[in-house]
Amino acid sequence: MLEDLLKERKCFKLVCGAGNENEEEVYDLVKLYAQAGCKFFDLSAKPEIVLAAKRALSCAGVEDAYLCVSVGIKNDPHVSKAQIDYEKCVQCGKCQEICPQKAINYFKVKAKNCIGCGKCYKVCHKGAISFYSQEKDLAEVLPPIIELGIDCIEFHAMGLDETEIETKWAYINSVYPGILSICTSRGKLGDEQMVARIKKMLEGRAPYTTIVQADGFPMSGGEDDYKTTLQTVATAEIVQNAKLPVYLLLSGGTNSKTAELAKMCGINYNGIAIGSFARKIVKNTPDALSAAKNLINSTL
User: Fold this and answer.
1) Using CA atoms, how far apart are residues 100 and 11, in angstroms rounded to an integer?
2) Please, what is the average pLDDT of the chain?
3) How far apart are CA 214 and CA 206, in angstroms?
4) Where are the chain's structural domains?
5) Residue 149 scores a pLDDT above 90
6) Are 106 and 126 in contact (CB under 8 A)?
7) Is the model's pLDDT at 266 over the cut of 90?
8) φ and ψ at residue 152, rounded to 5 degrees
9) Span 2-74+136-299: which CATH code?
C-alpha cells in the first residue's frame, strides 16, 4: 500500500513531468528507476502515459509500485507549453541548446516533450517565447485514468484563482476516494496564505489520506547543490510547523543534497519527489542504473 511506503519515511518519487507526454521517454524513465528501486511515479494525466508506465513496470518485473497523475489549474507552469513568435525569433539557437527535454528542434516546439520549465524563456533575449496553458476538463481527463488503475491524484494548487482551485479540488474528491496530493509553493502566496489554503483543502478529508508536496521552486532542480534545494526545505518547514495530519513530500529544486539539508533542519519528511535532477543524471550516461540507484539512496 502507498500509505505504508509513506509511513516508512523512505519514499522516493520520480517525477516524469506533468507535461511530459512522450510515451517512449516515460517508459524508459519508469523502467530504469523501477529497476533502481523507485516505488512511486508521477505522470502526465493521459491514459497512454499511464499505460506506458504500467508496461515499464511489468518489463522491470516490479509489482509493488504506485502511480500518481498530476493535474493543475490554468497557467500552472507544470501543464504549460512553450511557443515561439517567429516575427521576433532570430534563430540564435539558445532555446534549443538549453531545453532539457529536447522539445525545441529547428526552432519548432514539440509540445509532447515540453514540460513548461521556462529555461528557454530565460535565455531568449528577444522575447520570442511565451507559454500557453493546456486546458483540461477534469471530467473528461480523470475517469478513464481512474478506470485504468492509479494510486494517487496530485493537484497543483498554485496561482491565485481560489474559485478554480476550489471547484477542481471538489471534483477530484468526488470521483477519487484514494490518496490525494496537494502540490503547493510560496511563489504567489505568503506563508500564512499557503497554510490557510492547505487547511481549507483538507476540510472533510480523513487524517493522513493527503500528501502535501512542498514545492520550493518548481522544476528548478537541475543543479546538485544546497542552494538549489534551500527553498524546498524552507517551504517544507512551514508546512511541518502547521502540524497538519498529512504526509509531507519535498519537491521543487530537489537533488542529492535535499535529504541531508532537510535532516540538518529537522524536517520529518515522508519522502522526496525529484524530477529535473533525476531525469538529467540518467541522460547520456554510460551507467544510468547506478546513477539512479545512487540518487535514490541519497534520499533514504
Assistant:
1) 25
2) 91
3) 20
4) 2-74+136-299, 79-132
5) yes
6) no
7) yes
8) -170, 145
9) 3.20.20.70
Which pTM does this prediction carry? 0.89
What pairs with residue 290 in β-bridges? none
User: Distance between CA atoms of 243 and 220, rounded to whole angstroms?
Assistant: 27
The answer to whether the beta carbons of residues 179 and 211 sit under 8 Å apart is yes
Strand, coil or helix: 80: strand
- Sign of the Cα torsion 123, 127, 129, 132 reads positive
Instruction: Give the three cell numbers for residue 144.
Output: 478513464
* Confidence band for 13, pLDDT divided at 50, 70 and 90: very high
State residue 235 phi and psi, 5-degree precision: -65, -40
Q: Which amino acid is at 124?
A: C
Report yes or no: 13 and 273 within 8 Å, Cβ to Cβ: yes
Residue 271 grid coordinates: 519522502
Q: What is the pLDDT of residues 95-127, one digit of tens each?
A: 988 888 788 888 888 877 887 778 888 899 888
DSSP state of 45: S
> Over 90: is that where the pLDDT of 187 sits?
no
Cell of residue 239, nine digits: 508546512
Question: Which CATH architecture fits 79-132?
Answer: 2-Layer Sandwich (3.30)
Give the chain's radius of gyration (CA, Å). 18
Cα pseudo-dihedral 75, 77, 78, 82, rounded to 10: 100
Buried b (16+ CB within 10 A) or exposed e, 217-256: bbbbbbebeeebbbbbbbbbbebbebebebbbbbbbbbbb
Residue 149, all three cell numbers: 488503475
CA 197 to CA 183: how far, in whole Å? Answer: 11
